[in-house]
Amino acid sequence: MRRIFGLLLVSLMGVNGLNDFPKSFVTAKIKASVTLPCGAKINGDDVTWTFKGKDLDEDYQDEVQKAGANLLVKEVGRPLLGEYTCWSGGESASIYLLLEAEEEGELDSFLTCRAKSYNCAFSCTWVDNKYKAVRLGLDPHCREGGNSCSWVNSTVEQQDGRLHFELRHSLSPYSEESTRLELTAEALEKDSLLRRTKTFYLRDIIQPDSPEIVQCQEVDHSLSVTVRPPSSWSTPHSFFGLEHEVEYEHKDDGKKGRSSLSLVPKKISRLRVRSRDELVQSAWSQWTEWTNVNC
To answer: Which of 98, 81, 85, 100 is nearest to 37 (CA)?
Structure first.
C-alpha cells in the first residue's frame, strides 16, 4: 500500500507540477541547450546524475551529456523538465529544470501596485490566479532570479484567488525622487516559470486612502466643507499636501455637481469627498461614503 501511495504521489506531482519554488533551479527555452550545475560537494569521486530517480546514463544518454561535474541538457523539451540530482561521495544536491514561460504581456498585465503614502511601504496584488506560486523582489539582483534576491511571498490570498504582497523600500520621503524602483516578479505554473521586471517611481503608484469629512458650516450663501487627510497619509501635512474634490447632490432636482474648492452650494442634500497628491497629481483616492448635509 505504501509503495502504491508513493507512486501515486510522484505521478500527481508530475501532472500538476511544482506548488512552490524549489531551492535551486535553472530555466531554459524550449529546444535550447542548458547546463545544470552540480551543487554537491565534490570529493574527487565520479559525479552521478539521476532524473526523477532514474539513472541518466541508462535512460537518457541521447538527451544529456556530462560536462565535468555538471550536466548538459542538449535540447530542452517538456519530458526533460523536473528534478535532477547529482551525487558525489555520498553527498547529493537537487536542481530543477524549468521552462521559460512564453506568455506575452508586461508585468502590469499581471500585477497592480499602490502606495498609500510616501512612507517606506507599498502593496501589490497579483491578478492572474492560474499561477500556483508567486514571489516579488525589490532589488536589481532579482532581475536574474536566484537566491541572491530577498524574495517576498504573498501574505493574503483574497477570496477571488488574487495574491497580496507588502513590500518595503528605502527611499527618503523628504527628498526629490530621482531613483526608480525595480520590481521583479516570478510565477510558477506547472513546470514553467514566468519572470517579469518593471521600473517605476514611487510617485507613479501613489493613491491615498479616502479622506475624512470633519464638518460643514454655513458661510454667507455657501457651505464650507472641512476635510481631514487620511491617517495613513504622510506627515507633516504642510509638506505632503493633498487637494480635495467635493461631489454634492442638489436638494431641488437631485442633480450632482463637483467642486475643487472647500465651498459648495448651500442647498444640497448630501456630499462626498476624494483626495490626491496636489504636487504630482496622483491617482484619486476612493470616494468617501455619501454624507447627509444637515447644516
So the answer is: 85
